[in-house]
Amino acid sequence: MGTMMQPLALLLLLQAAYVYGCGSPAVQPDTSRVVNGEEARPHSWPWQISLQVKHGSRYHHTCGGTLIGPRWVLTAGHCIWPGDVYRVVLGEHDMSVQEGTEQVRDILRIIVHPEWDIDVVGDGNDLALLKLDKSPIMSDSVGVACLPEAGEIPAHGTSCYISGWGNLYTHGPMPDRLQQALLPVVEHAVCSRSDWWGSFVKTTMICAGGDVVSGCNGDSGGPLNCRGADSRWYVQGVTSFVSSQSCNEVKKPTVFTRTSAFRDWLSQVMLRY
Predict the structure, then answer these.
(1) Which of 143, 184, 188, 239 has its CA 20 to 30 A from that of 6?
(2) DSSP assignment, residue 16?
């Protein structure tokens, strides 16, 4: 009995140590200003990754993503196209220069949610998990975000932040440096009103924003970062879609896949592979 218990106790200790370290960046995000998006404080979102796709002999940023485990990245299903070759860059801030904090990892396995359908974005399930070929080295510039409890839904008006290298505005330039923007949560009862997103928004999604600040092309797959009561940062959403008319449209908040609705699936995949 004693020999059986020892490894289990050790495993629980390791899990506790790992969970304790999530969502606590060495560099605190700058949340003092509320403007229409701004450059993030370098490495203040250390779980933010750049998902890059290979074109010819070079890789280009295509989507964001979130490091949620030592070898696991969470991104959007619509970021993944069969046949494409991807890599993950961690510890990135300014894509135009080598800063010495970057870590590049190949992807060992891609698991897209089985019910994701590129032709019916409104059905939801816009999630994919990427298993890295090897763990990155955790540092001040590379860390893990916390996952919310199953079923947890942030209250209406909760201050959350989107982060990414997406277009600064509709058809605008892609920034070299990581951007962030404050997006207050919009509860489902409001977001599903007919003059908002209506029936396009499912209960497995979370809306945030809806005035003039929003995600845009290139932000897809990245996190909706929300601070918990324990002062840690949780990835409450995975950037899924914005209005096809423009990125910044009133009553058309950015829509995210709600992470807490998929905790079982995430756990199953990470345990299986």
Answers:
(1) 143
(2) H
Q: How confident is the model at residue 248 (pLDDT cuts 50, 70, 90)?
A: low
pLDDT digits (tens, 9 = 90+) for 49-97: 999 999 999 999 999 999 999 999 999 999 999 999 999 999 999 999 9
Q: What is the phi/psi pair of residue 18, to 5°?
A: -70, -45
Q: How far is CA 169 from CA 175, 240, 257, in A?
A: 10, 17, 22
- Residues identified as active-site: 78, 126, 220
- CATH superfamily of the 159-260 domain: Trypsin-like serine proteases (2.40.10.10)
Q: Quick one: CA dihedral 116, 244, 258, 230, positive or negative?
A: positive
CATH of 48-143+263-272, one of 3.40.1390.30, 3.90.550.10, 3.10.129.10, 2.40.10.10: 2.40.10.10
From the list 147, 184, 105, 113, the residue with the least C-alpha distance to 15 is 147
DSSP character at residue 191: H
CA angle 225, 230, 236 (to 5 degrees): 25
The predicted model gives 201-208 an average pLDDT of 96
